[in-house]
Amino acid sequence: MHIRTMKIGKVLFWLSLLAWFLLAIHANVKMTQSKNAQNTEPPFSLIYRLGDSTQRLTGFYENERLIFCLPGCIEMEDVSCSLNSEYNIKMDGITFCDGSKLDSIKEDMEYEALLFGTNGSDENIQERISVIFMRGSRIPCIRLDTTSGNLEYIHEEKGNFENGILQIWKADGQPDKIMKVKKISGRGNTAWDAIKKSYTIKLEDAADILGMGMAKTWILNANYYDGAYIRNQIGFEIARKGGIAYVPEEQFVDLYINGEYMGLYQLMEKIEAGKNRLDIGNDYLLEVDYMERAVLEEYILLENQQPLVIHAPEKERDINKVQAFFDRFQNSIEAGNVPSQNINMESFAKMFVMEEILQDMDFGYSSHFMYLDMDAEILYDGPVWDLDNTMGRGITKEAVSLYVTDYDLPYNNISRWYAVMYEQEDFRNMVREEYKNNFRESIVGLLETGIKEKTEMLAASVKMDEKRFCVPRSVFMPEASWEENIEYLESYLEDKLCIMDECFLEKDVQEENEEEFILPELQVQERPMEIDESAKDESAKQEAGNPATVTGFIAKNSLLFLLLGLSGTGIVLSCRNKKIGL
User: Fold this and answer.
1) Most C-beta atoms within 10 A of its C-beta, which of 56, 80, 192, 413?
2) DSSP-derived 3-state class of residue 67
3) Pick from 134, 163, 185: which residue ends a domain?
4) Is the same domain home to 321 and 208?
């Protein structure tokens, strides 16, 4: 088995380059925002009805054009204008007064709007502006109203939050829910620096939203850096059809906050222990994550100082037992033995195939979930989460064979576990059967019709989202259009299907073990910085709504700060055995 031995330092170097590029994009967006902010308040807004409620929509400026983005269930004949002054507006030769219906207006056409006259006079034109009216896809829409009426405080710091009201409508415009929100806050790490931000919503009372089950906490995922928009969705779909347990449910929605269109989002369940989420009772919900995030919760350390975060149970934890279990588990693995009595082999075989399909850039370092039945001393692998940096979007863009057994093997514990397991013939047979019977069909279905159907359904809302955030989406393919990103995703899946067919269907199981496998010595993971344990207190401060202290801010963002520092003064565009698309 060929071993790629790129060190964490090289990974950090490449990530520093990405961080530098992200901030360059961010600075460009800020400049665009500053220019747009110089515009006066739009001369009119739109009024329409959704269910039993009347909604007001404020437009936004993009390249000096005023854009209005309406939900897909709204017809222009049901929309009226609300003037913000005593003037009238003329578009396409038709005069619109306050309350006039826009039934003559067509979608996606650019109109010259003339703001003119007083008391019925058409003299003295005050302003000329270009206006475009857009309508989204037939998907659900969400309106979120914060107590302050804006997002300024929430956007100042990721830990800041407000309460508010959440309204949800189904794709046909029928109301689904209206709920009180206890906490609206930002989420994400490097993604938090994007202009289009993701949010966590915590309701006052649990609610079943769009048929996804009763829960209090929900995620509004921006998918900002996925130029195809759909990697999370299709990844979850493959995992669910493959039989991986507790895959989060999700739906695309058009999001409006305080009457302003905010973009195309993915409303998702949060990975958490609970009856309608991960129904694992008192089992331990665990996550492999980076140290700067792990310090905000309770965690143990694997042999090479890689943290394993304990998310659940909230009470009656025995952290020493968990540490002892993984000490024994890892000692066995490092000796080349698979402790099958302590592993749910089916769950590991399924996740092996799933991670092989994904080729996740963060594989083994972040967002890798497991759960541990401490009474039976059995470890389960999964579910999947955070799939933006997958399927051709990452350090290794091209599809390769046995990615998961060979990814930073001296440092990556999950990759080491998979590599040792895959040396066992019984496990290889399980992997082959899982791929053949449970996963392959999903990839074929996506390539035949699935991706096309998804893109056709989302096209109108993607077009609106691109107007709202008119900057490069994908760090790895910054100049590519949405259509080109979709084409690249399909190309990756086609290549991956061929490679996995050859590996798991065409080769004899004995052929895969011709070369002697030697597990390289486990090396201590390089830590970006020593973090004060007191940073754990930040989670409590965030719950109280206080802005984070400098220590907490650095702890939460240390990776980004480090990456910027690592970029240095020189840029080297080569890396042994790795390719990156910029």
Assistant:
1) 413
2) strand
3) 134
4) no
462 and 264 Cβ atoms separated by less than 8 Å: yes
**For 10-26, what is the mean pLDDT?**
49
Instruction: Tell me the C-alpha to C-alpha distance, in Å, between residue 418 and each of 352, 400, 421, 519.
Output: 7, 16, 5, 11
Length of the chain measured in residues: 582
Question: Does residue 38 surpass a pLDDT of 50?
Answer: no
Higher pLDDT, 524 or 347: 347
What are the pLDDT digits (tens) for 305-332?
999 999 999 999 999 999 999 999 999 9
Cβ neighbors of 282 (< 8 A, separation 6 or more) are 313, 316, 374
Q: CA gyration radius for the chain?
A: 26
User: Does residue 26 form part of some domain?
Assistant: no
DSSP H stretches of helix in 112-230: 152-156
Contact status, residue 432 vs residue 504, Cβ threshold 8 Å: yes
User: Is 429 a member of any domain?
Assistant: yes
pLDDT tens digits, residue range 61-89? Answer: 998 999 999 999 999 999 999 998 777 89
Which of 484, 505, 526 terminates a domain? The answer is: 505
Using DSSP bridges, classify how beta strands 110-116 and 88-91 pair: parallel, antiparallel or unpaired.
Answer: antiparallel
Domain that holds residue 309: 284-505
